[in-house]
Amino acid sequence: MDFGPILGIVVALIALWAALLVLFFVLRPRDVPVREIVRVVPDVLRLLRSLIGDGTVPLDVRVVLVGLVAWILSPIDLIPEFIPVLGPLDDVVVAVVAMRYVRRRVGVEALQQRWPGSPEGFALLLRVIGGG
Questions:
Q1: What are residue 3's phi and psi, to 5 degrees?
Q2: pLDDT tens-digit series, residues 119-129
Q3: Residue 50: pLDDT band by 50, 70, 90 thresholds?
Q4: What is the 3 state secondary structure string of 17-29?
């Protein structure tokens, strides 16, 4: 059996993932301390629950959010969690991409209406996912 094409696809996916990690690192908001991001995680989780449970939110958005939650909870990652710094990075990249998609599909106003936290926390979320 020839594994050449399969190996080529795997290498291409790894290269694409590495390029995305570099791109997100370069484009990251530099004025957002990790401590502040961690502080709004509970509010983000409540926002996700609100969006997933709302039948008025487009189905594709709810599917993306369910996929995001499944990705984060899944023990299978592209970069294993036990690798310091890099381990959780793939989860962060997926979360930012998913939330940017959600922001584009439902709009900043709809996100803000459902935001359970402080206005400062929402402003921080927008700095991370864009749109603010």
A1: -95, 5
A2: 999 998 998 88
A3: very high
A4: HHHHHHHHHHHCC
What pTM does this model have? 0.74
pLDDT top residue among 20 and 100 = 100
- CA 89, 105, 74 angle in degrees (round to 5)? 35
Half-sphere exposure of 55 (CA within 13 A, CB side): 0
Q: How many of the other CB atoms lie within 10 Å of CB of 94?
A: 17
- What token pair was written down for 1? 């059996």
The tokens describing 73, both together, are: 């909870």
Buried b (16+ CB within 10 A) or exposed e, 7-44: eeeeeeeeeeeeeebeeeeeeeeeeeeeeebeebeebb
Three-state secondary structure string covering 32-85: CCHHHHHHHHHHHHHHHHHHHHCCCCCHHHHHHHHHHHHHHHCCCCCCCCCCCC
- CA–CA separation, 120 and 51 (whole Å): 20
Distance of alpha carbon 38 from alpha carbon 52, whole angstroms: 21
From 87, 86, 85, select the one nearest 76 (Cα to Cα): 87
